[in-house]
Design goal:
Layout lengths: L4 E13 L8 E13 L3 E5 L6 H8 L7 E6 L2 E2 L5 H10 E4 L13 H11 L6 H14 L16 H13 L5 E5 L7 H18 L2 E6 L2 H7 L2 E6 L2 E6 L1 H6 L4 H8 L18
Parallel strand pairs: 3-8, 3-9, 6-7, 7-8
Antiparallel strand pairs: 1-2, 1-4, 4-5, 9-10
Helix pairs in contact: 3-4, 3-5, 5-6
Length: about 270
């Protein structure tokens, strides 16, 4: 495997039993999928709801067991690892969820939510050092210090998602998986979070798997795009190529359904605007 590849998925398949059926029917959510996520890259996974995007993300995170295939993280096959052997890789992969309201414990203050992963992984065990790290993370995600003593329901949706991002990066992961992480937000807030993610990726050298159904968002944030249809990857290309010369009929359909590709300033994609 190339030294520039962080995650390599080889021929991964996952199916589920269909509830409520008399016969033992199964639905194949991910069908023989292969892809690479490069170090420092944002790979977008795009497709309609139900096409298998989130299932693939859970397989990469080893939250779901594949039926077949291999998942290789930084040269190590983690497909068959479990328990103590898998634990070090858990720290290196973190997720930012779709709904910031349901992904944060409503009974915990923001300070404790951000600190919890560091306590679990024994990072910054000294109280003063941990407090300094929390303040550093708060600055990274552009939240005010006053947020620390609030509960999630006292923050806006965008602020809660910033907390989710701070929690995810608190233990210095190498891969962040963003599963529809802006789709639950207002359009103006989406732009703020997308710009924040792009800055953090550059600052921290993160790799990112960005899952979305919105091609205009993907066009802004992705280095490469995988288009997923019925559990399979039907096309992979850089955004400029994908949008100007789509090869697959489904990709052409997705592009034609975009009302208007969003405008970017300075003739580039430095900032996202709705």
């Amino acid at each position: 495997m190339s030294e520039n590849v962080l995650v390599s998925v080889h021929n991964v398949t996952k199916s589920f039993s269909l509830a409520g059926t008399f016969k033992k029917k199964r639905h194949t959510a991910v069908n023989n999928v292969s892809l690479d996520i490069l170090k420092g890259e944002t790979l977008a996974l795009v497709g309609e709801s139900g096409c298998g995007k989130s299932t693939l993300a859970r397989l990469i995170m080893r939250l779901t067991e594949p039926d077949s295939g291999e998942i290789i993280f930084d040269g190590t096959d983690i497909t068959s690892l479990s328990g103590r052997a898998l634990r070090p890789f858990r720290k290196r992969m973190q997720m930012v969820f779709q709904d910031p309201a349901s992904s944060l414990d409503p009974r915990m203050k923001i300070r404790d939510i951000i600190a919890e992963p560091m306590e679990i992984w024994k990072i910054c065990p000294d109280r003063r050092e941990r407090a300094e790290r929390i303040m550093e993370l708060l600055e990274m995600v552009e939240l005010k210090e006053s947020a620390l003593d609030k509960y999630p329901d006292q923050l806006s949706g965008g602020q809660r998602q910033r907390v989710g991002i701070a929690r995810a990066i608190s233990i210095d992961p190498e891969l962040i998986i963003c599963d529809e992480s802006v789709s639950a937000l207002d359009v103006s807030v989406q732009a703020q979070i997308l710009n924040l993610l792009k800055r953090l990726k550059k600052k921290l050298g993160l790799s990112c798997l960005f899952i979305s159904h919105d091609l205009s968002v993907v066009d802004f944030i992705a280095d490469r795009v995988c288009v997923m249809l019925n559990g399979e990857i039907c096309e992979t290309a850089e955004p400029d190529i994908l949008f100007t010369k789509p090869q697959h009929e489904y990709t052409r359909y997705l592009i034609s359904s975009i009302p208007e590709i969003k405008a970017f300033i300075n003739g580039g994609k430095n900032e996202y605007h709705q």
